[in-house]
Specification:
The protein is an alpha/beta fold. About 30% of the residues lie in helices and about 25% in strands.
């Protein structure tokens, strides 16, 4: 990553964290429920067998109502590996452990699922832009995953964090769709 892009992302992360923190708890809760509603009515969700999701941290959109409403779906959670990759395990609400980064992740001994079996990936981020580029926390975990992912990818964020454009470099990978509390949109194809 070039130094200007690195610095631009660092500054953008600070601004986006502040913007997300400015959303009060009730606004985040209400937006999360609206987002869950859009996802559950989406044909790609209805037809998906295995769905990758996440446990929210630091004010992220909370998708746990979907897990509760659709227990028959094959829900998967990522577990962070030391080499900058993620592995995927079946979701078991009683078998979550806290990672050093702060999020809950599946216990290591839960069944692991190959990425090729994932139909739909619900990807969190600090922010997205209409092209589908995401601003994560800087670890590159989702970029590595999305670069090889063959299913449908849906970026999840609040409308206040869909920005006109994000700084990107050649390693950044786009999602196909974005969902916020105003609906699901297909990402533009403009570079």
């Amino acid at each position: 990553m070039t130094r200007p892009v690195f610095e631009a992302k660092r500054l953008m992360r600070m601004r986006c964290r502040q913007r997300r923190d400015e959303l009060d708890e009730e606004a985040r809760r209400s937006a999360s429920l609206e987002i869950c509603g859009y996802i559950e009515a989406w044909p790609q969700f209805e037809s998906a067998g295995a769905i990758l999701t996440y446990m929210p941290m630091r004010g992220e959109v909370d998708l746990r109502p979907l897990l509760e409403a659709y227990p028959a779906k094959k829900w998967l959670l990522p577990r962070i590996q030391s080499e900058g990759r993620m592995v995927f395990h079946t979701y078991d609400p009683g078998r979550l452990v806290r990672h050093a980064y702060g999020m809950l992740e599946p216990a290591a001994d839960l069944p692991q699922v190959p990425p090729g079996e994932i139909d739909l990936a619900l990807a969190p981020a600090l922010a997205y832009d209409p092209r589908g580029y995401r601003l994560g926390y800087g670890g590159g975990f989702y970029d590595r995953f999305l670069g090889e992912f063959k299913g449908v990818s849906l970026g999840v964020t609040y409308q206040a964090l869909i920005l006109e454009a994000l700084p990107v470099d050649r390693h950044d990978i786009r999602v196909q769709y974005i969902v916020s509390e105003v609906g699901i949109q297909l990402c533009t194809t403009k570079k």
